[in-house]
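Action item from last week, closing it out:
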Amino acid sequence: MDDTFAKKLEELLTITLQTHQDSADAYINRGYLRIMQLEDYAGGLADLNRGLSLNPNNHYAFYNRGYLRETQFQDYYGALTDYNRAIALNPNYGRAYGARAALKYLEFKDFSGALADYNRTIELDPDDIISYNNRGLLKVALRDINGALADYNIAIELAPNDIAAYCNRATLKAIELEDYAEALADYNRAIEIDPDDPKLYYNRGLLKEYKLEDTYGAAKDYKLASEKGINLP
């Protein structure tokens, strides 16, 4: 949707609200439009606030307001409150559990609470690759290395071309398990999937230089990383 069309839609919703001032849906829809298309985050937040005051039973709007508060305003307590409300309204809304899990993990350092939320997300959607990857990272922080490896393995089984899972598993194998050959195999596979990502070459170069003592191979990877756009230290 181009900006001109988005502005026209915003104008139409504004006209609608002039005659339907109690339309929660109109406020919420204008809020989504302002956030996702016009990058008017303050205006979008104001609209969601008004819409939710008119209809406090819209779990999806609470989730989106929480995400907006978290990512654009760094209002982590407000975001947590909104995720809690979304889950209270719809206990089977997996996306809210996943967002709350990440917030608890990254901002509140509530690892046990985050783990419970990731478990619930995966229970609701056993094919949620992102949650397996994120739960794996959390398990590393909890020093459950085998559990993290299992989560990365499942993510790869579900999505054999998921680069994040290969990179996470490679890091785990190199740092925690000291299985450098398998870590190299994972980086090789990630590069096969996306041969244009300079970070993959750089990380493989680090593995070759510091763990495999392959300085020639490392130099080649650093050169490729540089050619593909990474700024080497």
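Closing note: The mean pLDDT is 96.
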